[in-house]
Every structure is written in structure tokens, then in C-alpha cells.
Amino acid sequence: MSAPAAPAPGAPRASAPGRRGVHLVDLTSIAGATYSPTLGYLQAAAEADPEVAARCAFRRHALLARGRWFEPACEELLSALDDPLVVAFTIYFWNRAQSLELARRVKERWPRCRVVAGGNDVSYQQDALFAEAPWVDVLVHGEGELRFVDLLRSLLHDGEGLASIDGITYWSGRGGDRRPVTTRPAARITDLSTVPSPLSVYPDAELAATTLLVYETNRGCPYSCAFCYWGGATNSKVRQFPMERIAADLDRAVRLASPTMMLALADANFGILPRDVEIARMLVTICERYGKKLDFFVTWAKNCNKRILETAALLRDGGLLAPVTLSTQSFSPTVLDLAQRSNIRLDNFRRLQAEFRKLGIPTYTDLIWGMPGETYDSFLAGVEETLAAGGAPVMFPLLLLNNTDYTKESFRADQKIVVRNLPFDVSDPELTGDVVVAHADMTEEDWLRGLEFRLSLHVFQKSLLRCTLRVLAAQTGARLVDLCDRLRDYLFDGAADGVTRAIAHNYRAAWTDPARLDRPLLQGELGLEVGNGDLYGRQEIHYEAILHRLVQRPDRLARFLDGAVDFLLGGTPEGARPDRESLRPALDLDLAAGSVFRSMITGRRERAAFTAPAATLASLREAGDLPPDLALPRGGDAAGWVSAPAKLLEGHHPHHSFSRYVVLCWRGMVSTLRDAEVVLAGAAPVGAGVPAPSRTPDPTPVQAHPGK
């Protein structure tokens, strides 16, 4: 029997009397993300089956369910139901609790409805899931599109043949005889051309309205990292969607995209395949065709190579490039061996950093704090390797994800892993998971010290004292990480500003007990409500509050930085202690960088003057701390001024622009002076081309796969 003629892409299907309702639910953490690829895949695959298409009417529900938005999301779904056949949830660690609670309410109101769950967090977790949520009727493991079609056919016939469907767990029997039954594992989909495009079921208006569109060009990951379920749980061959389909989908998505839409490529290792260069070229061409400049987010291949250099250059020239990820997670051989990870070689890492810097392409390096085998000292050594190569370290605490080797009981027992259910970011108390707080080589006090170091590095090396630390390290031979480690004591206890110290102390307190998050303190500094899940894009709220406190007043910032320099010099042996005045030019540059942060608060292009030896400026430029195209005199001093680029202030919002810029700094996506407008006396401005951060990437996709 052949399938009926397909409607035009995105055209709504006409409902018919007698069709049973099938509702697909994705509780999102991203404001305005009305498009869900998972829901699109499930509906498109189901409607490709003649019987299912004829007998089922589908509705998708991508709902924001954070904080005070959870109850409205529940009401919206429940009011849409009318004796439904199926309500299916896609579940990740960030929406698990909300999804299962909403599923309970669905089952309570419509007992005959079959509640179906699937997704990375619950696949292959049938015992735990059915104990936690016995109202879930069926759990689908792994790739769900084809299993879901088989499941709907069975449920249309009152569950007949459930036992013959591979890759599911369902309840069998009644009363005391009720027990879960798991069928044999399902094979992976080898031919992805058999899976219809998720965009095909979305009308043009819905695609045009979404703030985020996630798209796959391939599936699978050849690596087996023990901490990541992207590859660690599958270790699968990379399978590819047809290029013709990719071209058509990207053309439609870009044509319809609003100016605020982010296009996120969900490939596990973009750049791993030779054709990825062509996909990048294709995307640039399509954007030029429609005159679009999209926010583009991509997860790059783990072992960065020349192909990625070529691909990144194409995206940069097309105005689409976000910083390139150089994923290392750790530089410790012991850690990497336990994680079953073959890492990028250190000499190759340094070479690639230099090549990216030469091309003017920013990078950031993911590092995970708390991996088994890692000590505080080995972690600092890895951060120093990143900084010495000119990279921007982005440090995450280790989250224990379901379906990874780290979660195996034997591994956890051998490594003495201790976890606590905590927010992945203390700014967001709803986004919880099992965070590793201790193991055989790391005490919980070590773990907290590492988090304090993380905050110190963010405040000083990434934001407020970058140039001074670089010069001081060169003069004394000290490592940058050791200077930041010493500045932990200044930030938490030595700084004269009591509010700054209080915010730092609350950062530590909130990691030990999330209930101790001091909302009045943070709200008083930022002038907005924090920690309630309503604020899209806010991360690392203590870091933001400290910067906001210090940069809004130049005199307060100057006192704080002067105190930090005095603190460092006081702890330097007298014979190795440099003359304080030799640090003044670098400190003036750091104060000038503060004016860029201040502009993101005020919305005005504030200017700050500086004078520095040309040799100092040259070394900072070479290290990636100043614009790479900054032309300098051959010797002597150079005078000039720094200001925020005009483009950075386009669409300035008094409450959100500063927050978004701070997140970009934390993520290593911008560097204040490198991306500022720097003008030397008698020269043209440089560094003014940085794009305005209209939106920042939501953390969720990254946190879902911290192994990348």
C-alpha cells in the first residue's frame, strides 16, 4: 500500500472525524523556542505511515516551563486534551522533573491515555523511571522515530503486539501482577534518508517565529568518552542525512528566520567529515542569498584539524562564526585514560591556537572540573596550558549523566565517586543534576576550592585584570593560574569592598547548599529578580553581580584593582618583586577595559585613555589580549583610547545587554580589549567589527553533552 501524497512543507494536516489525538510535548528552557526537532521528527515519521496518518491527529507542544511558567504550561497542555490516545514526552535532565509531573497530571485526568516517555535522560533507565513515575505507560529507548510509529500502530489496536516492538519497556498485567517488560534492543537507523525532515510538519509561520532552530546533518559519535552520552553511550558510526535534504531544509530555515533566531547545529563533531566544509559554504551562500546574519552555534569536532580551520574561516568570512571549541576537558593523562578519551596532542593544541589567532578566529577550551583522576594541582596545570597557548578556558563542574560509563556502579565504587543533586549553575536552582563533589583524588573541600578558583579566574583573568596579570607573570615567572589562585583570597577576604566579598562568599555558600542563594543581595546589586527561572540567558549570576558592582563606578574599580595588585606584590618574594610603576600601563589598559563593561550598563560609548610602551602592547597583542590588527610604532610609548564598538550597543537593553555580554566573556566568546575599538593617536580605529551579542546561546545544549 503506497503512502498518500505528501502536503507542501509545513502545511497543516486537515483533521478528520474519528481521529485519535496524539500530543507531543517538549518542555523547553528557552524562551521563544517554539520549534522542537524531536517533536518534528516524531510527527513526520508517524504521518509517513498511511494507517497512523489516517487515524491520528497530531499536536505539538513546545512549552516554556521554567519557574512561574510551569503552571501555565501545564494548563495549556491539559486544556488541549480531549480523550487523547497518546501524550508523549521527550525528556532530558533539565526537564525531567517537570515532564514527569505534567505526565502525572495527564494520567490523572485521562486514565485511558497512554503516556509515553523517551529521550537521553530516561532511555535504558526503565527500573529507575518506572519506580519514580509508575504512571508512565511506555518508555522508548534510543532513537525514537521508527519505534514511535510501531508503538502508535499497536496502541491503535489496544496494545496488540507491544511485545514485538524492539527497544521499548511497557507495563504488562494488572494489579499485583503488573510488571515492566523490556523488549530486545532496537537496531540503530542505518539509512537516515528513511527519517523525514522534522521541518516538514512545521508551517512557515511557526519556523519564522521561533528563537531557536536545532538541526542535524548527521548522527552518531565515533568516540567513547566515559562521561558523555553523546558518544560514550553509543560509540556509533557517524550516519549522514542526504545533502539534497540538508540544502532544502537550510534554505527554508534561513529564508524564514527572524533576526533574533539562533541556528544551532546538533552534530556531535562538526568538521569531522569532509563534506562539512561544503555544508559551511552552503550555509554562507544561503545567508547571502536572503541577506540574513544568523546567530550560529555549532559543536566542533573533538580532535580539531586543518579541515576545521578551513571551515571556521569560511564561516568567519560569511559573518556566521562563533568562537571555535577546542575540547580537551582535561590535560591529565590519568584523567584521560580513565575517561577513555584520546585527546588532542598538546603540541597540536598549541599550534592550532596559534593558527586560529593568526586568522583572527577566537577559540574557547572546555575543561571539566571534578573528573575522576583529577587533582586540584593537575586541573590548574591544564588551565595554565590553555592560557599559555592563548586560549580561553571554560570550566564546568562534572555532571554525572545517565547512560555513561561514569555511572556504572563498579566505576563509581572504584573511584569513590560522591555526588549530590545540585544545580548545574547555582544561578538556576531548577536546572539540577547529579554533580560529582568528591572522588578518590578530590575531597569536597578541594572541589569547593576549585569552584572558588573558577570564580577568581573569571573575575580577574577573563575580565578585570587580564593585561596586568599577563605582564606580572612575564616579569616574575609566575603561572597565571597561581596568580589567580592567590587572588581567591583577595576576592573572598582581602578586598576592601564589603559587597563584593559578600557576593563571593554567597557563591561558595550556594554551592554547598542551593537554599543559601542570597537573592536579596544579588537582586539589590543587579536591580532585578534572580534565581526564579524566569530570566532567559542569565548564567553565573555571582560573577555578573561582582562585575556590575565594580565596573559601574570607575573609582571603585580602580580601588579594587589597585588593591589586587598590592595583594599580589605583597605575596611576591622581595627579590622577584617588580616595581609597581612598571605595571601601571597594563593596569591602565585594564581600567580602560572596564569602560567597555560600563558601556554595556549605560548604553553609552564611554572612552578611556591609556599610554603604554609599544613593546608591552605588542606582547599583549601577540597573546590575544588586544586586537590582532592593531598597528603599533616600532618603539617608545603609544597613546590612545578604548571604547565599546558601536555595533556592540545596537539594540541596547538596560537590564539584559550587560548580562549577555558578561556571559559572552565567561564563555570565552569575546575578550573585552581584543574585541573593543582601540584607537592609537594618529591611527584609524581597529577592532570595531565585533557583532552585537543580540542573544547568547542557552546553556542547555552544551550542558546536555559536557563531554564535547
TrEMBL record:
Residues 687-708 are annotated as: Disordered. Its cofactor is [4Fe-4S] cluster. It comes from the Bacteria. Keywords: Iron, Iron-sulfur, Metal-binding, S-adenosyl-L-methionine. It holds the Pfam family Radical_SAM. InterPro entries: BchE-like, Cobalamin-bd, Elp3/MiaA/NifB-like_rSAM, Methyltransferase_Class_B, rSAM, rSAM_horseshoe, rSAM_sf. Residues 83-162 form the B12-binding domain. PROSITE patterns: B12_BINDING. This is Radical SAM protein. It comes from Actinacidiphila epipremni.
